Every structure is written in structure tokens, then in C-alpha cells.
Amino acid sequence: MEEFLDKLPQMDLMRSEKMTLVQLIIPVESAHRSITYLGELGLLQFRDLNADKSPFQRTFANQVKRCGEMSRKLRFFKDQIDKAGLRCSPRHEIEPDIELGDLERQLADHEHEVLEMNSNSEKLRQTYNELLEFKIVLEKASGFLVSSNAHAIGDETELHESTYSNNGFIETASLLEQEMNPGPSNQSGLRFISGIINKDKLLRFERMLFRATRGNMLFNQTTSDEEIMDPSTSEMVEKVVFVVFFSGEQARTKILKICEAFGANCYPVPEDTTKQRQLTREVLSRLSDLEATLDAGTRHRNNALNSVGYSLTNWMTTVRREKAVYDTLNMLNFDVTKKCLVGEGWCPTFAKTQIHEVLQRATFDSNSQVGVIFHVMQAVESPPTYFRTNKLTNAFQEIIDAYGVARYQEANPAVYSVVTYPFLFAVMFGDWGHGLCLLLGALYLLARERKLSTQKLGSFMEMLFGGRYVILLMALFSIYCGLIYNEFFSVPFHIFGGSAYKCRDTTCSDAYTVGLVKYRDPYPFGVDPSWRGSRTELPYLNSLKMKMSILLGIAQMNLGLILSFFNARFFGSSLDIRYQFIPQMIFLNSLFGYLSLLIIIKWCTGSQADLYHVMIYMFLSPTEELGENELFWGQRPLQIMLLLLAFIAVPWMLFPKPFALRKIHMERFQGRTYGVLGTSEVDLDVEPDSARGGGHHEEEFNFSEIFVHQLIHSIEFVLGSVSNTASYLRLWALSLAHSELSTVFYEKVLLLAWGYENILIRLIGIAVFAFATAFILLMMETLSAFLHALRLHWVEFMGKFFNGDGYKFKPFSFALISDDDE
């Protein structure tokens, strides 16, 4: 037996890569270049040797802070470019590498220039808005005023230009300062104040004026024809022109304060029509000049942003990489001489040569007199788990990792899930019409793979794109299972020849069960289309799918147990093989493996035996004669033997292993206090430099704790064997539900609508059928089958052998740095 086990393969392809703990001693002058080259290689995961220090206490904290500040400036430029609506494609020619200090100075100069232009543009925009509001007030308020030379309100103020030069731009003094200087007024006559206010504040503004003046005012308002841009938000705001007539200086003071509180801008409007026209001409002239100035400023600003935008992508990549390099350098320690940096990390064993070559190249390129010292260390902790994946297997690996990362060198369930996952999905979803729809969606994602991989997708679309190969395999398996079920949108077809049944006489259409007779060999592939519409269709499909679900479930659970054997053999745990794997295989197959055998024999022989009765009375009356339920000779003694084996397997799982562990511990630590004992006896012989040497924390040997743990594990397996087998019946339930839903939509929607001669009813029926198929059968049912297949893999399959308590290998790699890691 031992020789046979030794000849079995080691499943190297099914396990994670072998990892090595290495130490780097890097001279200071070549440290930056060495870490940069390692980031380009992406095969070394550094350990943080300064975990007890805060980020501000680390050696390169200032450089990280500088990179963070440059990242902020680059994000500022990106926001400004997006706000301006510019599309700056990066230059295709290769730009020379730029030093971090030079880039920092360039970014500071560009930021200062853009901020100055923004400030000047905002001031000009504010002046332009005031002039535009003044023009609107002059146009609208004149309708409320009656010109009278005899009753002049006062000396109307002319618009004076008060300009001065500031950095080459023209700035205008505030119109409120120019125009609101009080002049001689009529102390006893009616007076007015005109202005403009946001439309959403108008109602509250009018109420406040009414209360403040106690109704002693006349309020007129009209909507502005033009929207005005708010400089702070760059949004167009709708405004309303108002004129308030009042009497008295006290009322004027109150109204002006209310206007100031509500953000209303007041502008003086002369009553004389001639002066109004003159003032309007002056305002229009200045508006024209300001528009030209604003356009020139915008062009200049866009040119500056374009010059930044051409190199923005490269600069962001450079800064992101530099920040990652300094973050990694902060994980290294200075040696006592302060001339070398010491680092530790994990790398795959196959990558040691590549890392050594990269470090040699870094030493040469940095003109360092001392090379980097690279050597293997003794492992002091459990290594990370690293699986090399490709486009096809990556999505399946992510599905497994969502449950738990495999322990180092543990059998990887993702290898088997590439086939079993889409197949179990297809068993529940089997319809080759719906499978073709899924296939078209997957082919679309694959055809646009190169384009979509460079775009920023939404969360839902990103999830679909990431699982494009999963969808492809699910579609192909769904087509295969749909051909077995012979369902195309629930309609059967004679794809593989004619039916094996024919009508006995002319009344066969009314007698489904006895009117059809079998006249030739069975239908060559899948379900015979004659079952469709027969009285026994549902009982037949129920029996078929239920038994098939049990067979698939027992097969997958046995695969899980076999993988547990290979795990135990790989880690050298003979106790797990003798006292877990063997009794578990005996218990599972004595009961449910025997049930699977009965199902196959019944299918092959065409027996009418009741398997429910056989399995129930196997426990209740094992010695009773089976009678018509006997499927083969010697069935009753075989059942008794299997039942005894199942009963023996339970204590076999429970008692020997804890006592064997206790015996090993007593022999190894005779005469000493209780020492360390892991989950298997191999842990007692662990070499100091082995990869599993530090994988388990030291705990005192506690026999009662180990016994209780084994008791829980045994009870869980015994009860789980029953519940897990029943759980696989979801394959039958969901397959039946999908088939019946598809039948209802086809018969009660499409065929019902097609029975009418009205073309409108037919079109409505087609639309409802298409909507139900797309959103219920192709979306909701797909998601439902996907989640149920996920459950069967995570619990029923992986629960038999998968520990999932490892941690992922996360190498320092520039390719893995995302835009958010800044």
C-alpha cells in the first residue's frame, strides 16, 4: 500500500508556487534604482520591518510627502482640464526620464500660472456679470419708471471708468462703489431702488421687504431673459429684476440692508430716457471689451492646460511609481553603519534567478562600488499563497479567493472549478436557446476585450467584463445541457432524428400515456421530444433530474474527499489519512454511494423498484426481505454490510486521532512539560528552515480541546453528508423551475398572442415574451443559478478539504498600482 501511494503524482500543478524567504542588503546609492527595477519585475513581496513606527517616523517620510503633494497638483490639473472640456491625448513619442526634483519645480510653476490665471479670470468674470446685470436692469426697470423733468429724484450718476493695470489685465472698480454713492435726493418725494436677485430667493425677499416697511412700498419684478453664470460653481443661474418704490431715508436704509442680506445686487437707473440710452451704450461697450478680454484669457489658459495635458498621464505614472518606491523603501531598515538598507521578502522559488539578475543590473546602472547582497533566509512564518493564472483561470481563482485564500501549498479548488462550476450552472440553466443568448453576450465582451480593458467601466459592467470567460463557459455548458434536455426556449426539436414513439391509432392525440407505442431504438441524444406535452412529462423529468442531481453531488463530494487525501499525503499527515479520509469515504459511500449505485442499476435494468422504500427500510428493517424492490442478487446482505461499515466509520472518525496525537506527544516529550503540537504529527518534526516552520502559533497540548474539536468535526461530517446530498437537489429544483417558467412564457404569452389575428396583439405578445425572457430568464435566473452553483462549490465541495486560512502573495509591482493608490 505504501509503495502504491508513493507512486501517485504530487499534484504540483494543482498547488501554489513554492515560496522562498530572502534578504536583501542594498547600498544606499543603489537602493532607489534596485527597488524600481524590482517593481518593474513584480515578483517580490517585501515584509514591513518598521511596523512599529508611524508613517512620520520613517526614513523617507519627506519624499513620500513630496510625492503626495505632487499627486495633489496633478489631480488639480486633471480637474482643471476636465472642467475646461479639453481632450489632451498623451504624446506617443518616448519622453526622457525626468528627475523628481525637476518635475516638482515644473509642477509648482504650472500650478502658480494656472492659479493666477484662474484668479484673474474670476475677477474679470465677476465684473462682466455685474455689467451684464446692470444692462438687464437698465432694460427691464425702465418699463416701471415714468420720466419727469419736474420731479427729479436726484442727480443721476454717470458711469465713470476707474481702471488700473494689474499684471497686464484690466480690473474695474465695483459698480456698487461707483454707482451707489448717494447724491442730492428729494427728501419728501417717492423714491426707488432697482436691482437683480436669484429667482429662488424672490418670494422670501419680497416678504421680508413687506414686513420691514410694514407694507409701505410697491414691489415690481420681471424675469430676466438671460441666465447669468455663477463664477464659483460655473452654473447658469436664472435671475429676476425688481424695482422697489418707497418713501423716506429710513426705509431706504432698511431695503439696502435686506438686499445685501439676500445677495441682491442693486444698480441705479436714471429716470431720464436719454441718460438711460447713454448709460446702456456705455455698458454695452464695456461688455464687448470684457468679452474679448475673457476670450483671450480663456485661450491662454487652455493653451497652458494643453501643454500640461500632453505630459499629464506620464507625470502621474511617474509620481505614482516614485511614491510606491519610497513607500517600499520605508519598509526597509538601515544597518548600523547607515550605509546599507536591509530588506526581507517572499518570492517564488523560480524567480530567484530573475531577481538576482535585476539586482546586478541595478548595481551596474547606479555605478555602485558594492553590489546588492541577496541570500535565502530561514522561514519564520507561513509563506503567502501564489497561483499563476491567465485570462481564463483568473476569474475562477477570484471566485475561490472570495471564500478564502488557500493555505500555502494546499490543493487549489479553482483548477477543478473551471469545469465543474459552469457545468453545475448549466444543469440548473439548461436551455440551448438561452445558452445561445449568453454566448452572444460573452462573444461581444471577448470581441471588445482590448478596447474595454483600457476604459473605466461601471461596477456592473466591470464585473461582467471580468467574468467574460466564466460567462463563455457557462453559455457553452448551457447549450450542451439544453441539448440533453431538448429545450430551445422550452420547445423540443427533432435534432438527432425522429422520436422513438408513434401513435397507436387515430385517437392517440387524446391518450398520451397509452396512445404512444415505442417502435424503434431510443432517441440517440438527450430527452425524446415526444415527452413534451405528455401526461407523464413532469413525473419523468422530475425523476430524471432528481436522480441526476444526486449522482452529480455524490461524485463531486467524493472528489473533495480525494483531494483531502492528497492534501494529507502532501503535508505528511498519515493520521489524517487513516483516521479521517478512510472512515469518511466509507461512511459517505456506504450510504449515498450505494444509493447512486441503485440509481444506475435501476436505469440500466428498467426495474420498477421503489428506491425510497429501499433506503428507508435499509435502516428500519435491514433483515427484511426486499421482495419486488430487489434490484440484484445479494442486495440484502450487501445492505447489512454497508450499514455496519457506516456505523463503524463514526467512532473510527471520532476516537483514534485524539488518542494517537496524545500518544505521540507523550513519547516525544517524555519527562518534560507539555510542548508544542500542531494539527498533525508531522509538525513535531518540522525543520527550522522549512516553509511551514512558523505557520502555526505555539499552543500547549490540550487533549480535551483536541477531542472536542474532533467530536465537532465528526458530527459535522456525518450530518453534513445527509444535508449536503440533499443540498444538491437544488440542481433538480432550479432546472425544473427554469423549464416551467420558460414553458409558461412561451405558451401563455407568445402562443396565446399569436392565436389572435390582430397584428397589434401579436406585437405586444412578442414584446412581453422578449422582456420576460431577457429580464427574468436571462438575468434573474442566471444570477440565481450562479449563486446556487457558488454555494455548492464553497460549502459542499470545498468543505471536504479546503482550509482557506492562507494569505495572498502581493508583490511590489508597478503593474498592480491603481489610480487610487496615491
UniProtKB/TrEMBL annotation:
Domain of life: Eukaryota
One family name in Pfam for this protein: V_ATPase_I
GO cellular component annotations of the record: proton-transporting V-type ATPase, V0 domain; vacuolar proton-transporting V-type ATPase complex
Keyword Iron-sulfur appears in the UniProt entry: no
Spans traversing the lipid bilayer: 423-446, 467-485, 548-566, 586-603, 638-655, 759-780
Entry GO MF terms: ATPase binding; proton-transporting ATPase activity, rotational mechanism
Signal sequence annotation: none
Key words of the record: Coiled coil, Hydrogen ion transport, Ion transport, Membrane, Transmembrane, Transmembrane helix, Transport
Coiled-coil region(s): 100-127
Compartments where found: Membrane
Role played: Essential component of the vacuolar proton pump (V-ATPase), a multimeric enzyme that catalyzes the translocation of protons across the membranes. Required for assembly and activity of the V-ATPase.
Family the UniProt entry places it in: Belongs to the V-ATPase 116 kDa subunit family.
UniProt-recorded name of the protein: V-type proton ATPase subunit a
Protein source organism: Arabidopsis thaliana x Arabidopsis arenosa
